Amino acid sequence: MKTNQLVKKNAQSGVAIITVLGLVSLISIASGYIAYTASQEMHISRVLRESLKAKLIAESGLNAAYNQLKTDFSRANGLDLASDFGSGRYVVTSTPDPDSTRRYKLTSNGTCGQFGRYKVSADVENRQITGTHSDDEFALEYDFLGLGSITISGNFDAHVDAIHGNGNVTMGGGSSTAATTISSSGTVTINKKVTPAPTTANGVPIETLPAGLDAAIDELIAFARQNGEVYANGVGPAAAPNGGIAVCEGFPPANWTGGTGCYIFLGGGKIVMNNVTINNVNGYPSLVFKNTAEISFTGNVDLNGAVLLTSSSLRFTGNATVNGPLVVGQTVDGNGTANLTGGDQSFTRPPTVTDNVVISAWH
Question: Most C-beta atoms within 10 A of its C-beta, which of 4, 209, 244, 346?
């Protein structure tokens, strides 16, 4: 009897223990599940929070890049903009549009924390606004202006109205001119073959470059840059540049033969031009050298339009024809055959162009 009671009591105790253990297990499982769920929710919340921040950071980077390009669209070429922002960072790069030099795709990658990654992109386009100057023509006072001496001993023939040299002006050899006036800050000497004899003036005050000429040349350069017509040193500019004006950062290659447009060179040193023909367009100059150079026309050079060599010297050693006003910043000399026809003492200034940068598409 006692044995049965003991067995029964032990059985009841075992059931109780098992029940307690079961309850403890259930509570542990429930607690673990709750903790796991809470952890997952915290993780998801963190991922969502950092992802949202990354999106906002990426968009902020795109806005920062756009604001820069609004004031200087040239920065779109090769743009690489990176900056810390808030609790993250953005990196913005650009990709040129193969069909237009005025359109780029901006891509901004935003990051935040461990999980935030977001990319946003947009197309930016420079829809330039073209206007006009109050005075579209830049006037030159002389057909042939040399800020140094002018010494010609070859068969130079000047079919112009007015010649001025700051140094002595000497026309010897077989040179001839139809100029009505030749003036000099020094003295003018012409050979007896020139008939009818032009009016000469000695001791005329020194002339400088026409006021605003450098600025007008800079307008031509800016217009070429806006049209993407910029060439590296030694690279031949296009035969027909977009917009009619091309700029070379240095000087032309030895085999360059010219083209149809206005060609501006920014290089210095000794420049030899041979077998070059340039036909200007839109009334722009045909040839411009902005910086100091020693330029030689060695043969068969045919320039149709104003020639502006504002800081350079010029030497004729072969056949050359300039159909337009000629401005030379230093000395002019030569013993070759050259023809100069002044014509209209002016050249046309390019249109005014204002950048108008807009976001044309979002991706």
Answer: 244
